[in-house]
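Hello,

I think I submitted the tryptophan job twice by accident. Can you confirm which output corresponds to this input? Input:
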Amino acid sequence: MTSGSTPPAALKGRILSGIQPTGNLHLGNYLGAIRNWSALQKDYECLFCIVDLHAITVWQEPKELIRATREVAAGYIASGIDPVANALFVQSHVPAHAQLAWVFNCVARLGWLNRMTQFKDKAGKNREAASAGLYVYPNLMAADILVYKATHVPVGEDQKQHLELARDIAQKFNNDYGVNLFPLPEPVIRGPGMRVMSLRDGSKKMSKSDPSEFSRLNMTDDADAIAGKVRKATTDPNPLPDSVEGLEGRAEAANLLNIYAALTDQTLEQAVAEQAGQQFSQFKAKLTDTAVTVLGPINAEMKRLMNDPAEIDAVLKRGADKANAIAEPVLAEVYQTVGFLPGIR
Ligand code: AMP
Ligand code: TRP
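Support: Only one job matched these inputs. Its output is below.
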């Protein structure tokens, strides 16, 4: 990790990504995000952020927010993200995010924000009651990325529109001020976009906000919890098919096989061929063993870390120091560019 505004030349670029500390981390977060990030750390300079400023765009219980912030940090570390080689930090510990976000509030146009589908989804019917923060959420996300001049951003499908907006903001800032200050960050989507669906309903995404605990495997679930949830997972009466085409119209079977394939590092085709003709009871036993093998060490390490909050906090402090060292000079460059009188600090 360098403290300059460009990453070391041997690496492919600089990555920034973030997860909101809301609710429990689940298998979708692991397979769709954290595991991929862990694989990127050898090729990129990486900054991984826990975005608590984003979290409070909707109501968060303060005590629970603290717990969830440490849990996400523990999840990152337990999944193999090296906190020494990378910066692992909390968004609110690096003031430049919020400071740059204000500048971006003045760059982004209302028309751009009005097109954001996540705001429409999250605000629901009662838009008047949504927080102003929820509306400008994408400007803060652009600041998260651009305050490090990050070149690559690993995100799920659902965040691509926000990343487009970050590029539009970078471009407009550069054009308006006649500078080449910000790179246009690229999305990184590794392999086919992994979408883990609910264990109860194969047409819904596995999500922190699903009221049913049986809809998801949490990264902190122990072997008994995993076994119980897999046993209760919705299925259909037929044995597993012998081809991917045979999964047509069988969303739950497709989801369980997809999860199994991801956990065993196989393609869906390979997993289907391996399990062809099995009854769900046999397949579920195998899936449980596999999930326990993969998640077991992660959840044991997460538990260990959660029992030692001081260790987590020390990692986050070191991460914030590294992040601040990169972000502060970029913010200073922005302030100078827009014509803020140099302060006496
Ligand atoms: P969220 O839990 O919505 O804050 O998302 C955090 C990260 O996990 C994002 O990169 C999402 O794309 C990813 N993610 C969340 N849920 C799933 C899911 N069910 N399947 C795959 N990826 C997911
Ligand atoms: N909006 C992202 C999500 O809900 C989280 C996030 C905030 C993020 N800032 C980011 C992701 C910067 C990537 C880069 O998943």
